[in-house]
Amino acid sequence: MITELQEAKRMAMKIQDPVETLLSIQDLHVWYELRRFGFSVVGHVKAVDNVSFDLAEGETVAVVGESGCGKSSLMKTILGLNNPTGGRVVFDGDDLSKLKGEGLRNYRFKIGYVQQDPYGALPPFMNVQKILEEPLIISGMTDKTERLSRIRKVMTEVKLHPIEDFLHKFPHMLSGGQQQRIVIARAMLREPKLIVADEPVSMLDASVRVEILKLMRALQESHGLSVIYITHDLSTVKYFSQRIFVMYAGNLIEKADTRRLLQNPLHPYTHALLAATSDPDAANAESFKEVPPGEPPSLVNPPKGCRFHPRCSRAMVGLCDEKEPVDFEPEPGHLVACWLYQP
Amino acid sequence: MNGASQLLEVKNLKLHFRTQTGIVQAVDGVDLELDFHRAVVILGESGCGKTSLSKAMLRLLPRNVASYDGKLFLKGKDIMAFSDEEYRQSVRWVGMSLVPQAAMNSLNPVLTVGDQVSEPAMLHLGVGKAEALGIVKKMFQHVGVPADFINRYPFELSGGMRQRVALAMALVTSPNLIILDEPTSALDLLTQANIMNVLKRIKHELGTSFILITHDIATSSELADEVAIMYAGQVVETGEAREFFPAPLHPYSQMLMASVPRLRSESDPMFITGQPPSLINPPKGCRFAARCPFRFEKCDEEPPLIQMGKRKVKCWLRQ
């Protein structure tokens, strides 16, 4: 009965256009206090600064950026693990800042989390059955047979069969790909509406990587899930997401459809990322790559104006180093925070 | 037999480990050749014996070695016949040096980078501290580390800078060959591109040869003159990068290449079903046979490395 309803809802969703917004983030700030001797606040690490976006039901977006750009802080805030310093996170009609206790727990059940390192994410002393049973016990499913049937269902969905062979295995007895399937199964247990996947394939081998990406894609399509795919690898993005957000030093600097962004990158940083991504080709060895000089800035004292301007070859003196760029829309649906595109 | 132009020749190298569950044939009959001023990339998935191969070439062996044999020639010299002391003095660092996996995290936190990088120079070149620091400064210039970083501690440097320092340490004794084990795997995209640029520059400026061990196929093409594909402890294909990347010969290489997501093409990446065999009691014939779509009767026997022009492939299909 429930599945029929879900099916009908999914069909309706496909027909309806525009679709409902599942997650809405407005002016989100996540700052961490820097304290001296544990008392006086001497500054802030501005990990996420002024981030806004909407995510529709059933939509997949990729957040692309290097380590230390604030991807993980953004993700943890969405998961309800961090308190935002400012701004609003509205998920499925609930304002995250107003949720407490039971409400916050129910909120977390609606979001699945796929961790980066599957081996680190699975407790080594629990077997697969225990690992998958635990979230169900915590969420109040008291009937053991019900729990087991749910576990069987998700294990079938992530293609871990024969199920009996896996239930009593411990994480170290599984290959990297199988471990990641368990992590995905665990994220799917509570039938979430949103999956947050933090570099889900970066620890896996090339041949397994594609298998896991295709599995996640299939789950996303069959369940109408929304997915936030966090990665630094642009080459996997186009197989997975409809939109790309590029993040640099705590800001989302470019937002566009995947195809449009890959074909026509606008922000100089996005250009640099694309240029640095290589395809296997022997000709690569004959030339040097163009890489912007320097390193991403400290998030305690980010540069004034555009945060990329000290590394940018197209920076304009008096503008980029003075005023923080706002989002411009040089083509419909393609937002870029760069003064070059000021109309 | 071994012409002066050959820098390194590996013949039937074997390294087996003793474990509680049996003998692990981590490196099982590897053949490899490398000339001066060339870079060979050893590609393979985790657990295929890449790192063990680097350990075997440098004779950095753990205690549980069950067997270690084969032939190793460095600049024509049979280094397999060397005693451990001779190996330490005239092969490691001087002849070939290693940048181990996660090298940037293996720097000593309580010594300045200058002290650490100068140590191999003092030990192996017999120079004094001042002269060694001079060499370090020169090498820092080659890898793009500012000379005044010599007095800094590792925690004061970013990941990319620490990786460059580790590279400078391998270079400081001016070896002809550097073995790099996953030099870019823990780094960010732009830092990766920077490190690959540094390696290319060193190859041009100093004429160093490289053995680059990695599972990152796309990045490896930045440096590769030659490619060797490893599977289950064996090299299954070798060839020039120019010939290999457009058209790999071994079914495993073909499937591996097809699994690489590409930014600039519309191809749909494929995955290889199944898992590599256990290296304890690997299958008798071709080790890839169980996962190979082209398997036939002959695959129950172990295929030889079949020469095809400049390329070699360990597959009966190419006979």
What features would you describe in this structure?
The complex is a heterodimer of chains A (343) and B (319). Chain A is α/β, with parallel strands linked by helices and 343 residues long. Chain A has a domain at 12-110 and 190-265: P-loop containing nucleotide triphosphate hydrolases (Rossmann fold). Helix content of chain A is 34%, strand content 24%. Chain A has helices at residues 2-15, 71-78, 101-109, 118-121, 128-138, 144-157, 163-167, 176-188, 206-223, 234-237, 258-263, 268-276, and strands at residues 21-36, 40-56, 60-64, 86-91, 94-95, 111-114, 194-198, 226-231, 243-248, 251-257, 328-331, 334-336. Chain A has an eight-stranded mixed beta sheet with strand order 6-7-8-3-9-10-12-11. Chain A has a four-stranded antiparallel beta sheet with strand order 2-1-4-5. In chain A, a hairpin with a 2-residue loop joins strand 4 (86-91) and strand 5 (94-95). The longest helix of chain A is centred in the middle third of the chain and has 18 residues, at 206-223. Chain A is globular and about 70 Å long. Chain A starts with a helix and ends in a 7-residue tail after the last strand. By secondary structure, chain B is an alpha/beta fold. Chain B has two domains: 6-95 and 177-189 and 207-260 and 270-318, 3-Layer(aba) Sandwich (Rossmann fold); 106-174, no CATH class. In chain B, a hairpin with a 2-residue loop joins strand 11 and strand 12 (311-313). The mean pLDDT of chain B is 91. Chain A binds chain B through residues 66-67, 175-176, 205-211, 213-214, 232-236, 238-239, 262, 272-282, 284-285, 288-289, 291-292, 295, and chain B through 39, 45-46, 158, 160, 188-194, 196-197, 200-201, 215-225, 240-242, 244-246, 255-257, 259-265, 268-272, 275.
Kindly summarize this structure in a few lines.
Chain A is α/β, with parallel strands linked by helices and 343 residues long. Helix content of chain A is 34%, strand content 24%.
